[in-house]
Amino acid sequence: MGRGVRSGEDHCAVLLLGSRLTQKIHMPSARSKFSPATLAQLDLSREVAEQLQGASSKQLRPVLDYCLTKNPDWWRKGKERLANAPEGLGGFVDTNVIAIRKAFDAARAQRIDQACKLIQEQIRSAKEKTVRGYLKQQLAEYTHHLDPKEAQEIVLSGYQDNRRILKPLSGITYARLAAPHGSQAAAAAEFMKRFLDGNDLIIFTNALLDDLDWYEDDAKRFEAAIRELGAFLGFGSQRPEVDLGKGPDNLWAVGTLNFFVIEAKNGATTAQISKSDWTQLVGSMEWFEASYDSTCKASPVIIHPSAKFDRYSSP
Predict the structure, then answer these.
(1) What is residue 80's predicted lDDT score, i.e. its pLDDT?
(2) 181-230 pLDDT per residue, tens
(3) What is the Cα–Cα distance from 190 to 70, expressed in whole angstroms?
(4) Residues 42, 1: contact at Cβ < 8 Å?
């Protein structure tokens, strides 16, 4: 947004589009990163957006012109909000970013041992598991120059904290999924504690629904939304194929040792469910039988634009 206001005389209108982006800028963790001046502008914009709810794109243009033509009343209102914004703290720079940069500079100077030390110190102070896992991947990359075997052990440790980093060459074990303790309703309520008020819940739901649309070119986004939907409904929810490199796209533990083995084919364009798509679900069921004992029961689920199988499939 700052590219539009390079000096005190610059002015522009910025449109923030998309439910997922709207959700992000409402989160307390995101708001804490903005300056008081930016927050004041965002809050004023939110008030305007509430008045325009349901308006067409054509009806937005006169509102944008308040800014673009320097409407005196709008200009005065914006200045008042900025003038009344509270004093802000100093600029925010993540300490992890600083450590990663210092480690890179040390490695570039052929001080690999110093690079490892800097990242190790940051790992010890990391509070979030996903961040700790990412830092371990950084440490492994430097350690590889000194001891490739130890580097693989570090990657494996990091992978346990963050399933989105690089996978180790070997050693990954599958952690069986279980339904949350207590009732499904209690688990769903626990999930919703992250929302400060009803509006935050509505914003999250709208963003989730957007991600559950039929995106032909974004299977990972859809699968991530299915995982989030499972947790939202109070189920245990995993993405085995992403976490392990094999298994179904999604797995839900729905209680009493019952599971949904889910293959997501949101990008399919065929008029019927093909044999290859069905065969993939059969393979995922075989994976489940090999990973869980006989007390666990699985139902095969395929998400596809069509509800009909082609003649080569044998559901």
Answers:
(1) 92
(2) 889 999 999 999 888 788 888 889 999 998 998 866 688 899 999 999 99
(3) 47
(4) no
Q: pTM of the prediction? A: 0.73
- The whole-number pLDDT of residue 145 equals 96
Cα(110)–Cα(112) distance, integer angstroms: 6
CB 227 within 8 A of CB 250: yes
**Of the candidates 109, 173, 168, the residue with the CA atom closest to the CA atom of residue 141:** 168
Residue ranges for the chain with pLDDT beneath 50? none
